[in-house]
Amino acid sequence: MPQRMNAAVRAVVRMGIYVGAKMFFVHEGYQGMVDGGSNIVQVSWESVSSILQRGGTVIGSARCSAFRNREGRLKAAANLLEKGITNLCVIGGDGSLTGANLFREEWSGLLDELAKNGKISKDDVKNYSHLNIVGLVGSIDNDFCGTDMTIGTDSALHRIIEVVDAIMTTALSHQRTFVLEVMGRHCGYLALASALACGADWVFIPESPPEDDWEKHMVEKLSENRAHKKRLNIIIVAEGAIDAQNQPITSEKIKNLVVDELGFDTRVTILGHVQRGGTPSAFDRILASRTGVEAVLALLEAKPETPACVVSLSGNHIVRLPLMECVKMTQAVQKAMDKKDFKKAVKLRGRSFENNLQTYKLLSQKETTAEIPKSNFNVAVMNVGAPAAGMNAAIRSAVRVGITEGHKMLVVNNGFEGLSKGEIKEFHWTCVRGWTGQGGSILGTKRTLPAMYLEQIAEQIRTYKINGLLVVGGFEAFQGCINLFEARPQHKEFCIPMCILPATISNNVPGSDFSIGCDTGLNALVETCDRIKQSASGTKRRVFIIETMGGYCGYLASMGGLSAGADVAYIFEEKFDIRELQANVRHLTEKMKTNIQRGLVLRNENCNENYTTDFIYQLYSEEGKGVFDCRKNVLGHMQQGGAPSPFDRNFATKISAKAMQWLTKKLQDNFQDGKVFVNDDDSVCLLGMRTRTLLFQPVVELKKETDFEHRIPKEQWWLKLRPLMKILAKYKISYQVPSSAKLENIECRTREGNEAS
Question: Catalytic center at which residues (predicted)?
Answer without folding.
Answer: 141
